[in-house]
Prior knowledge:
Elements: H1 2-15, H2 33-44, E1 49-52, H3 62-75, E2 79-82
Amino acid sequence: MVAVQERRLRDAAADRGLALGTIFAEHDRGTRIAFGDLLDTLDSSGVRHVLVPDFGHFSPHPLLQALMLGRLRRRSAAQVHVVDG
């Protein structure tokens, strides 16, 4: 399943003229370590695009999705692309 999602993200990036760099994934439910790593990477790099399969990958809860997306947008100028949206 992970390989299929990674391929879909790579294809979506290529369709947009982008190259897929790092994939951030939480391995423990309820943690936000990978999300913090994503924000830190955006702070320290020239990356300006983030691809997500859907907002459910931030969180299954719509309010938490909105909060995380807002935090991402406040911290960086990255454009968020929803692949399956």
